[in-house]
Amino acid sequence: MKNLLSIETLDTEDIHKIFQLTTSLKATRGSHEQPLKGQTWALVFSKSSTRTRVSFEVGIRELGGESLFLSAVDIQLGRGEPIKDTARVLGRMIHGAVIRTFAQQDVVEFAEYGKIPTINALTDDEHPCQILTDIFTFGEKTRKTSDVPIEEIIRGKVITFVGDAACNVPISWIFAAARMGFELRLAAPSAYLPSKEIMDRAEKMKVPGAKFVLTEDLKSAVAGADMLYTDVWVSMGKEAESAQRLLDLKDYQVNSDLVALAKPSALVMHCLPAYRGKEISEECFEKHAITIFDQAENRLHTQKAILSLLK
Q1: Statement: 12-126+299-309 belongs to CATH 3.40.50.1370
Q2: Which of 32, 53, 105, 109 reaches 20 to 30 Å from 118, CA-CA?
Q3: pTM of this prediction?
Q4: Superfamily of domain 130-297
Q5: Cβ–Cβ < 8 Å for 122, 130
Q6: Along the 311 residues of the chain, how does pLDDT read in single tens digits?
Q7: Strand, helix or coil at 149?
Q8: 12-126+299-309 shares its CATH topology with 130-297
Q9: Exposure string (b/e) for 84-94, b if CB count within 10 Å is 16 or more?
């Protein structure tokens, strides 16, 4: 595996390897090998971050490497240098790059021109590290024996996303469902459902068991679900739409009444940061806080697995 740019382009064998190694690295934290020893990785961030930055910096160091944080405003990229030129410079000096930015094409171009392992740490189109972490967390919390592969545990399950279903997180969930064979229900007002172009791409890559339900009917989307998932209503770059988004999405909150419609064993997840009283109620968040913060911690372990597998 040379790069991790999207769930859409990630093959099933690499998904299996990521989950398998994540399990091992989490269980042996502090005593495993250091495959990045002698390497320097750059974190090139155009968007602010807490979990992504910390988990990657800690992960790189635990794997024996050094991390170099480069905010876009502090390098020439922020003054208009083309991403392909930045990539060609950094590619001669560093061993890998973790990029958190707006345009998916920037990550694709960096990988092409930098010719070093490149990880998509979030774009407006996808958030692959987050969704791989979420699926690992789901499997970890629901499997009965450790010998069952994570990807088999989620196969055939029902995952319901509530809120803005057209942003990067649900889009990555769409490709994950298509690739791994589970049912994904997206509950949102019609203006916040994913585009036909995204759904057509996902339909072409569906494996047996994959199913999509796009609906404005919140209750039917949640009924019998194995997991409820939500994210902020106002993503980075959408701040100018804040007032309208809060109005449009006010009825799509994950709360205790809604969770009661899902399976009794249903997990509630949130990729954080969470705005209590908006996409999720305070009561519901705190009731499911252990799962949510295990999910946050697992970013470290999953990303260490990804870093270890890139060649």
Answers
A1: yes
A2: 32
A3: 0.97
A4: Aspartate/ornithine carbamoyltransferase (3.40.50.1370)
A5: yes
A6: 999 999 999 999 999 999 999 999 999 998 888 999 999 999 999 999 999 999 999 999 999 999 999 998 888 888 889 999 999 999 999 999 999 999 999 999 999 999 999 999 999 999 999 999 999 999 999 998 878 999 999 999 999 999 999 999 999 999 999 999 999 999 999 999 999 999 999 999 999 999 999 999 999 999 999 999 999 999 888 899 999 999 999 999 999 999 999 999 999 999 999 999 999 999 999 999 999 999 999 999 999 999 999 99
A7: coil
A8: yes
A9: eebbeebbeeb
Q: Residue 144 is which amino acid?
A: K
The DSSP call for residue 281 is -
Report long-range pairs for 288-292 (Cβ below 8 Å, ≥24 apart).
291/137, 291/141, 291/267, 292/268
